[in-house]
């Protein structure tokens, strides 16, 4: 029955993959989709291209898989996002098996799998063409096989795990090797370091015991060496690609800090929604109440590992919150390691009283934004969660009356809040422009890439406001995202408003706009122009 439920929910989720406007977009996806489609158009299957040149930013695995599915199912968002969806199903399968292997409880395993399925991490990155979903899978895959190797005392598991890490290199370069190296370091640290009776002790015997595992990790270098050798020896631009990727794209990020480290910490809070409070609770219990049980040792390995990867990501200049996504899954595994039931975590005082407050916020937003469907469901959520809070402790309704509304927090945000407030569908605004030569005047080229992805039969170019005449001399249609002075031979044919990505408003201006319900303060006009006499 549980497998049927997961298949049903996954099928519903899969139906949203083909919608261009994702509820939780990520800018890099536009570039990834563009690279896949350009590579198919130019027949550059081995070495993906972007803007007519070899793509220097990321290795090719995600692009190869996107091209493969585009060939099978036809070029489209569904085919390309199916890559991350499949990695998501693989991650859920690994999570289920690992959680059950640790907890030995089918009920707890099912509850934990549902919580991870409905987390913000899963509902965002397993539906976008991004490397993050695949990185979650490969990181969990190695640690799952590492655990199986220890449980069965069979080194073949960790050998396969090490070899498969090499495929992870083809996603984002050597970063996965660094993650796994930090995990092995965390494991050795917990095994080697002891504090007994106030004395700091170091034992080197674990290092000897783990020597085969460490040596087998060398298998992870086979695929990277093969790919780097191919680029270096057999492609004309290989040396330049390698130099840009390793020096500019990777090492260059450690040159200087330009983003706050709070963004990384915010990622831990953001991508664990709506189970942030239960996961903070289990993390606190793991640190506070220690034991010598083998699962407690495993839990401490996970906490050290999460600390190390957090420190690592605080070092580069880029500190995007989604950098922590490959490790969120291990927070969801902590209850199994600590043998703490999800029922206790969900019904903890802080968590069960927070959920009605979340739904109260939904009610407030629905009134301010005039969203009647969100208002109705939010009001129902308040009634159910309050009823659950004040029911008898032994009543099963108390748990499910909190758990189910908590599961639905992110889907409700997607369906009843973000979807009604979404920008107009740009393909419907540009119906007459399909097949024409379009010039997009915007702040950055990704806007033009986005329109090109949506209008596959059109030729789309990017231009800055002052250079559109030189950049797009033969354009039949202009789409203006940024204010520009146009010549008299252009006629405005359509316009709409969309949400601003960057607000130049202070807090008092934002408050006044909210009180007046003036959404235009948060929006900018997009206009469409065609050649003709101005009227």
UniProtKB/TrEMBL annotation:
The chain crosses the membrane at residues 61-78, 85-102, 114-147, 154-170, 176-193, 214-233, 264-285, 297-315, 321-337, 357-385, 397-418. It is found in: Cell membrane. It comes from Leptospira perdikensis. One of its GO terms (biological process) is lipopolysaccharide biosynthetic process. It is a multi-pass membrane protein. It comes from the Bacteria. The keyword Transmembrane helix applies. Keywords: Cell membrane, Glycosyltransferase, Membrane, Transferase, Transmembrane, Transmembrane helix. The keyword Iron-sulfur does not apply. Residues 58-192 form the Glycosyltransferase RgtA/B/C/D-like domain. This is Phospholipid carrier-dependent glycosyltransferase. One of its GO terms (molecular function) is pentosyltransferase activity. GO terms for cellular component: plasma membrane.
């Amino acid at each position: 029955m549980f497998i049927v439920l997961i298949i049903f929910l996954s099928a519903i989720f899969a139906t949203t993959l083909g919608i261009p406007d994702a509820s939780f977009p990520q800018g890099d996806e536009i570039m990834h989709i563009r690279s896949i489609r350009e590579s198919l158009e130019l027949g550059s299957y081995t070495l993906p291209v972007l803007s007519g040149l070899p793509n220097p930013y990321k290795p090719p695995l995600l692009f190869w898989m996107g091209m493969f599915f585009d060939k099978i199912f036809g070029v489209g968002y569904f085919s390309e996002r199916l890559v991350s969806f499949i990695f998501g199903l693989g991650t859920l399968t690994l999570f289920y098996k690992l959680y059950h292997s640790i907890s030995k409880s089918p009920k707890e395993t099912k509850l934990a799998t549902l919580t991870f399925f409905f987390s913000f991490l899963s509902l965002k990155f397993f539906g976008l063409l991004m490397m993050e979903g695949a990185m979650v899978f490969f990181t969990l895959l190695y640690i799952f096989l590492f655990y199986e190797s220890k449980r069965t005392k069979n080194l073949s598991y960790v050998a396969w795990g090490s070899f498969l890490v090499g495929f992870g290199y083809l996603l984002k370069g050597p970063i996965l090797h660094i993650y796994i190296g930090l995990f092995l370091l965390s494991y050795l640290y917990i095994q080697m370091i002891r504090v007994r009776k106030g004395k700091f002790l170091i034992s080197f015997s674990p290092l000897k015991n783990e020597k085969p595992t460490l040596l087998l990790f060398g298998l992870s270098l086979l695929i990277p060496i093969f790919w780097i050798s191919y680029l270096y020896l057999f492609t004309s631009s290989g040396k330049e690609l390698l130099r840009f990727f390793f020096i500019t794209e990777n090492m260059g990020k450690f040159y200087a800090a330009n983003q706050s480290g709070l963004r990384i910490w915010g990622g831990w809070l953001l991508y664990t929604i709506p189970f942030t409070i239960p996961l903070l609770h289990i993390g606190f219990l793991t640190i506070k109440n220690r034991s010598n049980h083998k699962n407690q040792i495993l839990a401490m390995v996970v906490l050290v590992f999460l600390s190390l990867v957090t420190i690592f990501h605080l070092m580069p200049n880029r500190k995007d919150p989604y950098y922590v996504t490959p490790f969120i899954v291990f927070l969801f595994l902590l209850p199994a390691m600590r043998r703490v039931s999800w029922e206790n975590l969900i019904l903890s005082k802080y968590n069960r009283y927070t959920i009605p407050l979340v739904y109260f916020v939904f009610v407030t937003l629905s009134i301010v934004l005039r969203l009647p469907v969100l208002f109705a469901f939010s009001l129902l959520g308040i009634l159910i969660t309050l009823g659950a809070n004040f029911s008898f402790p032994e009543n099963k309704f108390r748990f499910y009356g909190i758990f189910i509304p908590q599961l639905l927090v992110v889907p409700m945000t997607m369906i009843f809040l973000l979807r009604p407030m979404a920008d107009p569908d740009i393909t419907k605004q540009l119906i007459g422009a399909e097949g024409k030569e379009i010039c997009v005047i915007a702040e950055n080229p990704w806007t033009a890439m986005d329109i090109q992805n949506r209008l596959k039969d059109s030729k789309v170019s990017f231009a800055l406001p002052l250079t559109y005449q030189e950049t797009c001399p033969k354009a039949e249609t202009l789409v203006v995202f940024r204010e520009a002075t146009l010549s008299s031979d252009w006629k405005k044919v359509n316009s709409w408003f969309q949400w601003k990505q960057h607000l130049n408003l202070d807090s008092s201006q934002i408050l006044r706009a909210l009180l007046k319900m003036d959404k235009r303060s948060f929006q900018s006009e997009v206009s469409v122009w065609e050649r003709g006499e101005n009227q």
